[in-house]
Amino acid sequence: MKNKKRTVYFHIDVNNAYLSWEALYRMRELGETEDIREQDAIIGGDISKRHGVVLAKSQSAKKYGVRTGEPVVSAMKKCPGLRSYKPNMWYYKERSRELMQLFQKYAPVVDQYSIDEAFLDMTGTYSLYGDPVEFAYRLKEEIKETLEFTVNIGISSNRLLAKMASDFSKPDKVHTLFPEEIQEKMWPLPVEDLFYVGKSTAVRLHALGIHTIGDVAQSDLPVLKSHFKSHGEVIYNFANGIDLTLEDRTEAVQKGYGNSVTIPYDIKEAEDAYHTIMGLCESVCSRMRRDSVQATVLCVELKDSNFQVKRHQRTLLSPTDVTDECYQIACDLFDELWDGSPIRLIGVTANKVSENGVRQLNLFDMESHDKLKNLDMALDSIREKYGSEAVKRGSFL
Length: 397
What we know:
This protein is an alpha+beta fold.
């Protein structure tokens, strides 16, 4: 890479994180000698609580057709002798924290994207570490030697392409995907490999004769928008390497407050969903009030019984941390989003938070807002003093 002043992002993703970290836990903490990564093994949730899905799988289990996200009982049928290990999330979070601390030694900006992946803004570090690609190989080896697990590193001039690059061949690899490499490296890939293209979108794209990422990139944008609305423009931009969602770092680093829950049964009635949403809003808003922040964007996420995920968000007229206000908006978002499919997970997230948000004056809700705000603060005070179960809403009884 010759241009020393070029914008450079790393996307670093732990290879098979849960399985790798569980293997370390069992060898380091329990003294086991066998590496579960060499077994026909999965990390699977608790079947009795509807978390009984495959969270991670070994390479040998993959050969039997075991897939991440499928029920554990289904995986057991595919692979005789398959061993299932429950996740130790506290240990995984510790390994994740160590990894992020290592990143902070080298990168001016580290944006953690999930428990096992992060974006590193390496722009301007040429004089410190030399060629970014060569440094990526050194960093990858340091992670392997010191933390005892492997990662993939994707490198590009924006976050989208860096993330796409890190998903190329695995494990323990470094890949580049700069704009001039898009046609050669990304366009031949199937549409399923494009960020933000899920199973249902892929099926619809195939029906339109669009089979590769290059096909998406060279499609007529109005046609895509007519079939997929705003999502069509998103995937069109992504296929052309244009990143409009991850490019602005000031937005990306703003802290969000979210919570989700996997329900022990399929939700098929809106009233049951509203009940769950209220609990999520209480959790999210109480944490915002604790940190003295308010949100201007609210997002609802649904996962159906086929593991299809949908999200819908709204920008609020005024920032808020009031539970009832967020609840009403979240219910509206749910109504607009839900297509009647059985639901197994619901999530609520408050984004674009800031301290001391200035509320837009509204003569029709000013009084009710103040009353609800005072009620929430009173409930927070009681729960802080006597415990979270000290007072409950009547709908939860």
